[in-house]
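Notes from the 1:1 (GR / supervisor)

We went over the backlog. Supervisor wanted to see one worked example end to end before approving the batch request, so GR pasted a single chain during the call. The sequence is below; no edits were made to it. Supervisor asked that the structure be written out right there so they could see what the output format looks like.
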Amino acid sequence: MRLDYADETELNNWLDRLDRDLVYPAVSELIFTITPELTATEVVDRALAYRPIGMRAVVRATGQPVP
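Structure output shown during the call:
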């Protein structure tokens, strides 16, 4: 993906914003390591499509959680 930014601070600000706003665990990997390169739209589409695995707590019959 072609990146247009003024300096490293601006780049880091954009990456921080993406990390904060999207649930995807490593947005920068989509931008910098996927081959062939993704477009900006494809990066956002993949990040928005991500659904984390839901974890359920195991509870004993007494209602107490299992450590």
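Supervisor's comment: The longest helix spans residues 8-21.
Batch request approved.
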